[in-house]
Write a structure and sequence with these properties.
With 459 residues, this protein is of the alpha+beta class. The protein folds into two domains: 2-23 and 51-212, Electron Transport, Fmn-binding Protein, Chain A (Pnp Oxidase, Chain A), CATH 2.30.110; 217-261 and 292-457, Pnp Oxidase, Chain A (Roll), CATH 2.30.110.10. The protein is built from nine helices and 28 strands. It has helices spanning 2-8, 40-45, 103-112, 124-135, 144-148, 211-214, 350-358, 370-380, 390-393; strands spanning 10-12, 24-26, 31-35, 57-63, 68-74, 77-80, 85-91, 114-119, 152-154, 161-163, 168-174, 178-179, 185-186, 191-194, 197-210, 219-223, 257-260, 272-274, 277-281, 304-309, 315-320, 323-327, 332-338, 360-365, 412-423, 427-440, 449-451, 456-458. The strands form six sheets. Strands 4, 5, 6, 7, 8, 11, 14, 15, 18 and 19 form a ten-stranded antiparallel β-sheet that branches. Strands 2, 3, 20, 21, 22, 23, 24, 25 and 26 form a nine-stranded antiparallel β-sheet that branches.
């Protein structure tokens, strides 16, 4: 297990930013700053993400009637609740050996129209799949599943093959044109091209969860934030008076050390048991209850600390659990913001109007720390309309001297300009091109952020 953990641990940075001409030291602010204007020549030399954003990984299979294909995907994310939709992003342009065209897999996906998104716990089986994907080129993606020498079966709602070693499987299909809850047309096509990548929108049709997990005999263990240790602490801001005092208001909880199932999660209400897996089939019916409308099962995601400005200059913070990097050139971060009024959990966010009005937002990277977790919980349960001192009362410092509000407590902040939006049903996917990155100057190879992109299963 130690070797497996070491293999998948992601550590950033690996080079000293002070030694790189791409980064400018803002000494007074204690940040390194990088303006993100990249050309294809520089990307050919190094197309790695210019800074860390914690993203999970998954394995994806598809079947087009005659051919089965396998690929790995970084940053799968749930983007909409009703219908239940996830996105997968694939490279369509050759940038480097790291970012190259996934044309064969995409061809099979678009022809077959469905996928099985799978999660295998760290260990020998996961190593075999990852090694095979690395060894067998994309043009031979149809040979990968057989080359793993792992046993497979067919999905329950589509023909995409499923690894028997997978403890969690999301079956999904390319979404079809439909209307949202107010009757507006959505999903004119099941994908969107943006720069170097194509974003697919996939409606979840069924979820498979290993029976022992569904019955509570085992748990999925997920660390949703990276680990980091600041070398200096900022003074805690003085809490301001707030009129918010409603003990009966619905509250969302947040814990970066997430276990599923557990007392603070909903039960996995499956329909049947098939081949050792608890199976739940999904519909598009809107569920209005706050708890009943939660995600029906665990899906690995992190949190982006999305900041914006109100017209009067008041800074705002919205922790967003559906945040992901969706494109490399340009470097695009997608955030999902509710616009539908379903209940207290899913209702139109004031952040949405602010981001649309200004055309920009910040996206900070939180880390495992009691103060940060407290801030996420507070900000996630308060609207700026209720508490104009929302960030301060969340216990976080805010710097409003940049183009977007910046939280100096966080190690990394991406400054984004809005370049597109996609209406999804209950949420809007806001696409932000990163124009600047700010990194605290106590982030270094000697003091890096550490991230593990796979969940585990424990007894």
């Amino acid at each position: 297990m130690i070797k497996t953990v070491d293999r998948y641990n992601y550590i950033w940075p690996t080079v000293d930013l002070s030694m790189s001409p791409q980064w400018q030291h803002l000494k007074a602010k204690r940040f390194y700053a990088r303006e993100l204007s990249e050309n294809e020549e520089s990307l050919q030399k190094d197309s790695r993400w210019p800074a860390m954003f914690p993203s999970s990984m998954c394995l994806v299979t598809t079947q087009d009637g005659s051919v089965s294909a396998l690929e790995k995907v970084v940053a799968p994310v749930i983007v909409n609740r009703f219908p239940y939709v996830m996105t997968l992003s694939f490279c369509t342009k050759h940038l480097s050996g790291r970012h190259h065209v996934r044309g064969e897999f995409m061809k099979h996906l678009e022809k077959g129209g469905s996928v099985a998104v799978q999660f295998i716990q760290p260990g020998e089986a996961l190593n075999k799949v990852m090694d095979t994907i690395d060894a067998v080129k994309d043009e031979n993606t149809d040979q990968r599943i057989k080359a793993t020498r792992l046993s497979i079966r067919q999905g329950v709602s589509n023909n995409a093959p499923v690894f028997n070693d997978a403890y969690l499987v999301y079956e999904a299909k390319l979404i079809e044109p439909s209307k949202d809850y107010i009757g507006d047309s959505i999903y004119h096509q099941p994908f969107q091209d943006i720069g170097s990548h194509r974003i697919y929108f996939l409606e979840v049709t069924a979820i498979q969860l290993r029976q022992d997990i569904a019955e509570g005999k085992s748990q999925i263990a997920w660390e949703s934030l990276p680990v980091w240790q600041p070398k200096y602490e900022l003074p805690r801001p003085k809490r301001m008076h707030s009129d918010v005092s409603d003990p009966d208001k619905y509250k969302k909880l947040y814990n970066p050390h997430y276990k599923f199932p557990a007392k603070n999660t909903i039960a996995f209400n499956y329909d049947t048991i098939e081949k050792g897996m608890a199976v739940k089939k999904l519909s598009t019916q809107i569920i209005s209850g706050n708890d009943d409308s939660r995600w029906p099962c665990f899906f690995p995601s992190s949190v982006g600390m999305v900041t914006s400005l109100r017209e009067d200059g008041t800074p705002n913070l919205m922790p967003c659990g559906s945040t992901a990097v969706v494109g490399r050139h340009p470097f695009i971060i997608g955030i999902c913001v509710a616009y539908a009024q379903i209940n207290e959990r899913y209702k139109k966010r004031s952040s949405l109007d602010m981001i649309k009005q200004t055309g920009k937002f910040g996206c900070g990277v939180p880390y495992v720390d009691d103060k940060i977790v407290e801030g996420i919980t507070y900000a996630g349960n308060r609207s700026l309309s209720e508490d104009k001192y929302k960030i301060t009362n969340a216990g976080l410092v805010v710097d409003s001297s940049f183009d977007v509000p910046v939280l100096p407590d966080l190690p990394i902040t991406f400054v984004c300009k809005v370049v597109g939006e996609v209406k999804l049903g209950t949420h809007l996917l806001m696409l932000g091109e990163v124009v600047r990155i700010l990194v605290r100057d106590d982030v270094s190879p000697d003091n890096p952020l550490t991230w593990f992109p796979w969940a585990d299963v424990i007894s």
